[in-house]
From TrEMBL:
InterPro entries: NST/OST, P-loop_NTPase, Sulfotransferase_dom. Residues 1-15 form the signal peptide. This is Sulfotransferase. Residues 40-277 form the Sulfotransferase domain. 3'-phosphoadenylyl sulfate binds at residues 49-53, 132, 140, 256-260. Its EC number is 2.8.2.-. The active site is at residue 49.
């Protein structure tokens, strides 16, 4: 009899409980492997076109990570923000206890109110920022907009028209402004201490994904798990592709790694010269340098 009672008790905490003939849902708090949604532990805040998709896909290789599928745009779109934190939590993946959840919305990095909004909602968030050599990032940004316009059957504009105004660089051109990392980082550092951030080197992530991901694992205090076996080089794509624990292979979408426009050497050197000082200020802010020649 005691054995039967023990079995019944055990069963009642693991699955549905039978009360007066009614099956009530299991108590999530008592169910050791319950899946639940919670505010993200980790947020990839940007920068757009620096490798944010590669970063979240590579993070998912770790069994302790559950990632949101889409860009949530909770903190930067007022129409989403007004829906409240419960709505935000609903956009998160279900995660077993102990697993960390992550979302990425690259537009967060350059949106004015986002740092304070995140601090209010999740002061202990771990923030991942992936950066890339600013001129290359700008060209990638331009290329993305170029293709978006083609898809919408709009005529793409030549880069020079957008980038230059009276022969000088147009600082209002958004892809240029987004590459001024220090101006945006300054705002983030008013909301969070530098220890909340880990900076991923987007150029290094392309060349040596494992080394960069090992640094991410260390920052997130994850058991080292991502290995060389998770990556293989795809000659056709010219990038590393991913192999998960079930040996499923996957390259990033073909919109990643598109050919950039030909830019005159004059404009290239103008850009590189221009970014020199903003880069120096960014390095000073974050206390490290990047190999951006
Ligand atoms: P390009 O398309 O300019 O080459 P995001 O995901 O933030 O939009 O960034 C896109 C960039 O991710 C791509 O820029 C590409 O260089 C970079 N990237 C990094 N690792 C990659 C990978 N393994 N496969 C494809 N693209 C990768």
């Amino acid at each position: 009899m005691a054995l039967v009672l023990a079995l019944l008790l055990c069963f009642s905490t693991q699955s549905s409980v039978l009360v007066s003939g009614v099956i009530s849902p299991p108590d999530a708090a008592l169910t050791p492997r319950a899946n639940a949604r919670h505010l993200p532990d980790i947020i990839i805040i940007g920068v757009r076109k620096a490798g944010t998709r590669a970063l979240i896909q590579m993070l998912r290789l770790h069994t302790s990570i559950a990632a949101a599928q889409n860009e949530v745009h909770f903190f930067d779109w007022d129409s989403h923000y007004e829906r409240g934190l419960d709505w935000y939590v609903d956009q998160m993946p279900e995660a077993q206890p102990g697993r960390l959840t992550v979302e990425k919305t690259p537009a967060y990095f350059t949106s004015r109110d986002v740092p304070q909004r995140i601090r209010l909602a999740k002061p202990d968030a771990r923030l991942l920022l992936i950066v890339r050599e600013p001129t290359e990032r700008l060209l990638s940004d331009y290329t993305q907009v170029y293709h978006n316009r083609l898809e919408k059957r709009k005529r793409p504009q030549p880069l020079e028209t957008l980038l230059l105004r009276n022969g000088e660089l147009n600082l209002d051109y958004k892809p240029l402004n987004r590459s001024l990392y220090h101006t945006h980082m300054q705002r983030w550092l008013q909301a969070f201490p530098i220890s909340s951030f880990h900076l991923v080197d987007g150029d290094a992530l392309v060349r040596e994904p494992l080394a960069e991901m090992q640094k991410v694992e260390a920052f997130l205090k994850l058991q080292p798990q991502i290995s060389q076996n998770n990556f293989y080089f795809n000659q056709t794509r010219g990038f590393f592709c991913l192999r998960d624990g079930r040996q499923q292979q996957r390259c990033l979408h073909s919109s990643k790694g598109r050919k950039h426009p030909q830019v005159s050497p004059h404009i290239l050197s103008k850009l590189q010269h221009f970014f020199h000082e903003p880069n120096r200020r960014f390095f000073e802010l974050v206390g490290r340098t990047f190999d951006w020649k």
